Structures are given as structure tokens and as C-alpha cells.
Amino acid sequence: MDTGVGLFIVANGIVSPESRNKGKISSLKSSLLSSLPLIILGMGRVLSTKGVNYQEHVTEYGVHWNFFFTVSAVKICSSLLLTFLGNIILSGPAIILILLYQLLLNKFGLSGYLALGADGHGGRTGLLDSNREGIVSCAGYLSLYLLAVDLGKHIFNRERKTVRDWLSFAGVLCLLQAVLWCVMMWTEIHVQQVSRRFANLAYVVWILALSVFLLWLLLLVELFRYTQSTTLSKSEDDVCLLSAINYNGLLYFLLANVFTGLVNLSIDTLKSSLAQSMGILVSYMGILGLVTVLLYKWKIRLKFW
Length: 305
Fold this sequence. Notes:
This protein is mainly alpha-helical and 305 residues long. It has helices at residues 2-14, 28-51, 58-61, 67-85, 91-107, 110-116, 127-130, 132-136, 138-156, 163-190, 201-227, 241-247, 249-266, 274-297. The chain is built from 14 helices and no strands.
């Protein structure tokens, strides 16, 4: 889960309209409208989990906060920043933001507040204090999103026509991930350990390094496939799980959450045997993949904004 939420933010940043220079920068009004379904989903999750007394750890996001609220907050805040900054290189503002946030965590007691609350004993009084982890960590996720937008610009806005061009880009990704892994290890030792709960500097660098590594790996696979074939085109009937997930990304994410909830509600997972656990996992992935592939094959996209 720690990697999943971070990679979800990165994926959204890489394919965002800003990274691909598609049209004008989203206005605050349009961002609010497009974030409304996420806010509704977040509220629905709060009501459903409280209504069925679903097991949850309040130290992850807080009492009422969840990842849907985080995604909507990142989207709205990024639109605000882009309105003032314009569609410029965003790595600078993103780095400044995460460094200032880490400074608050280390030097101004923000880490202690997130861990122990306003009363110093882990209590949760008031809306802000009850959801302190989810609200404050938005700063880290926003920085991660802005860095991902810049990464997307580098991917989409550079013309690459030959295998040599893509091999050169693979070399850039390889070098970038090596630098990021080194920075992550140094940060974890000398600054603060990786914390998804805080979305701190080490976490942002870790997720970015992992994202670049995965992009590099996928690019190598695609280049290998290309060298083994005579054409890059594929049949319209060709169904790939990755393509199906990309086609209905949010739906896939929602279904995965719903299936996880159903499993946790119906089975005591802590007491499950190895065979039962493997059966659940195989069924979970099989059903999730089947639904996604069928929707892709039938060209049904469930997107409501």
C-alpha cells in the first residue's frame, strides 16, 4: 500500500494534461469540478467504513481522512500553483516545497505533532488534529505530483523516432534512478527514515526512484519486443492487461479497494492458513483482471468526469 498510493500519484502526474501540453492549464473551477467525484468517493468511504465498523488504522490518514481526499487535495493545490507559476519547469518549486516540509518535520516539531498529536499523548481532538497525518502529508504528495509532471514532460515532449533515441533515453532513466536511489539512502540515514504516513523527503525520493526504475524496466521490455518484431503496430484484437488497466485506471483502483474491503469483512485474515490466503489472492487478482480486461475488450470506459 505504501508504494501503491505513491505510484498512483506519480502515474497521474506523468499522464496529466500539463505534462503532455494538452490545452490550457486547468483552472481552479475545473479542478474543483473534476475533484468532486473523488471527494464524494472519499465521503462514501468514510460513511461505509464507520457504518459497518470496518477495521482501520487511524494513524495512516486520520479518523475521517482517506486517500481519495488526498488525491483531490493534490489536484486542487497543483492547479492553484500552476495558475500562478504557469506551465514551467516544476522541479524547482517541488524541491523547495519538499525541503521546506522536511525542515518543518525535523526542526520545528512537526514530526512530533504528527506522531503524538496536540496533547502529546496521541490524542485526537478537533477535525484538524483528528486527521493530521492525511492533511499534512498532502505537502509531500503535492511535491511528488509536481516532480512527476516534469518527468512526464520529458517523456512526451521530446521527439524520439529511432531505437537509438529510445536507448539513449533508457540510459538517462538508468542514470536518474541511480542518483535517486543514492539520494534516498543518504536521506534515510542522515535526515529521516522513509515514512508514507508523513510523506516525507525520503518517501518522495523513494517513490520517484521506484517509478523511474519501473519506467526504465518497461522501456527495456518494449525495446526488446520491438527488436524481435518487424512492426510496432498491434492488432485491435490484442488484449493486454496493462492496456486494460490504463483504460480504466480509476475503476481498477476502486474495485481493488472494494474487493479488499469485502475480504476483510468476510474473513479473519490474521487467522487464515497459507492455502486459504493463496486462494484468496489468486481469486482476487483473477476476478479483478477479468473484469478489467472484459471492459477493455468491449471498449467500456467508466469515467464520470
